[in-house]
Design goal:
The chain has five helices and ten strands. The protein has helices at about 30-35, 60-70, 90, 135-155, 230-270, and strands at about 10-15, 25-30, 50, 75-80, 100-110, 110-115, 165-175, 185-195, 200-210, 215-230. A six-stranded antiparallel sheet has the order 5-6-8-9-10-7. Helix 1 (about 30-35) packs parallel to helix 2. The chain is globular and about 85 Å long.
């Protein structure tokens, strides 16, 4: 690759973000592979920097790299990719890694934490809703939720390794300030309150903001409590029992009322009514 020529930079995004690929210098994985096969980059003598946006997996990047080598473009394309260090399953509270939005979590100060936003092409929030060029707002909300979980698990709950915590959200509000697009973005957690002296009950308040291209895309304020699991599970079970009893009682009363109405209608019309059939 020439060291003197001004390079061209291409951003590659997952196929889910095909709407964003309407922008110049943006292609989906499929589009880029197809252009390589068609020889689009064989005649351009400029160096080409190829960088990954959101939705590109390690496997897809290896596919891109393999195609470049196969087509003799390995020396002309600067294919730089670093796999994100995802928050662990127990930190993000997600069983499938494709649904984890938090990566490269780090502590920047006493009350300040940050992470890289990582949106997988098959994230659960994109599968049935992705329109236009931007990433839908629910991704920002879920990223804030995963961020407070990851920060709390890694930097607070980890002090009590003999306990398992159950997180209860008390309030959560998100203001959307700018569109979020499928390129690099940073999630910032600012602690407003952290009460951690009682290991049975850790209480927090925080602001979680999402930043991209020098602008804030959203800010979420949240208050939440981490309870020692046995305590909250017993309370949850009691509340669930009350909900079940209410649902059963309501359904029974509705069925009895419907039967009575049918019986009354049958009597008036002279039609027989089967009770208990």
């Amino acid at each position: 690759m020439s060291a003197t020529a001004t390079p061209r930079t291409l951003l590659i995004v997952g196929d889910r973000f095909v709407g964003f690929a309407a922008q110049d210098d943006v292609l989906t994985v499929t589009q880029f592979v197809e252009e390589m096969r068609l020889g689009v980059y064989s005649w351009d003598t400029r160096p080409i920097l190829v960088r990954a946006g959101q939705g590109v997996t390690t496997e897809e990047w290896e596919l891109v790299r393999g195609q470049a080598q196969l087509l003799g473009l390995g020396d002309r394309l600067d294919l730089d990719y670093r796999a994100p260090a995802l928050a662990a399953r127990g930190e993000a509270h997600k069983h499938r890694s494709c649904n984890t939005l938090i990566a490269d979590l780090r502590r920047d100060g006493e009350d300040l934490f940050s992470a890289t936003l990582r949106v997988h092409n098959d994230n659960e929030l994109l599968i049935d809703h992705q329109t236009g060029e931007h990433v839908q707002g629910m991704v920002a909300v879920e990223a804030a939720r995963q961020m407070f979980l990851a920060v709390s698990e890694r930097y607070h709950a980890s002090r009590h390794l003999d306990r398992s915590y159950y997180y209860v959200i008390e309030s959560l509000n998100t203001d959307f300030e700018n569109f979020l697009f499928p390129v690099d973005a940073t999630v910032v957690y600012h602690t407003l309150r952290a009460e951690t002296d009682d290991p049975d009950r850790l209480s927090f308040a925080a602001e979680i903001s999402l930043h991209q291209a020098g602008r804030r895309a959203s800010i979420t304020t949240v208050t939440y409590t981490a309870f020692d699991s046995p305590v909250i599970e017993a309370k949850e079970h009691r509340r669930a029992r009350v909900a079940v009893e209410h649902a059963v009682r309501t359904a029974t009363q509705a069925a009895v009322a419907a039967g009575a109405t049918a019986a009354g209608a049958g009597t008036k019309t002279g039609q027989p009514v089967l009770v208990g059939a």
